[in-house]
Amino acid sequence: MELEKLEQTCNFGDYLDKALRNQFVFGLQNRAIQSRLLEVRDLKLAKAKDIAFSMEMSNRGADEIQGSCPAYPVQHIIATGKKKNKPTINQRKTACYRCGNENHLANKCRYLNTICNHCKTMRHLDKGINLDLNKFITAKEEVSYCEMDSLILEKVLDKYLKVFEPGIGKIEGLQAKSTLRKDTKPVFFKARSVAFAVRDA
């Protein structure tokens, strides 16, 4: 009993045995054992333990002989941590089927026009596919979409020619007005670097 371990630091004196006995008797869950212990005059802690143990063992033995197992009610449930809420549909992470990453959807994937090293088809990477490599697959006629994609790219470049011109662009037909305080000082900001994928070779 944990209370017996704490008795060394407490100054209960002669009352210690009575206090521990009372805690033991009134803390019992089995009402039959508790009422039997309350019937005994001048009950000591050691005797209370012996009676409770022998009654519990005899009850278990009787249950085994009769083939029944008692159902004990739940006394106390201890929480093991914070309750985890199930994520809503918007919060669930959906992996991109092209590359396998969870931070974007397939329509925003940067590997949209990349050729897979495993199956040699476009629009996904080999880590984004889930294939059982032990199964045999019969190949159908291969179709190349590279020419089609280059035609679409040329149309987009021709349509938005000014956007893709080298150099800094300018806005025409709009006026802007800036109001500054008298004590405003100019601040230099470094230009943003262009990603390697976008730079000209």
TrEMBL record:
- Which PROSITE patterns does the record cross-reference, listed alphabetically? ZF_CCHC
| GO MF entries | nucleic acid binding; zinc ion binding
- Key words, A-Z: Metal-binding, Zinc, Zinc-finger
Domain CCHC-type: from-to ranges: 96-110
Report the InterPro entries cross-referenced here: Retrovirus_Pol_polyprotein, Znf_CCHC, Znf_CCHC_sf
SUPFAM superfamilies given in the database record: Retrovirus zinc finger-like domains
The lineage's top-level taxon is Eukaryota
Q: Which PANTHER family match?
A: PROTEIN CBG26694 (PTHR37984), RIBONUCLEASE H (PTHR37984:SF13)
Designated name of the protein: CCHC-type domain-containing protein
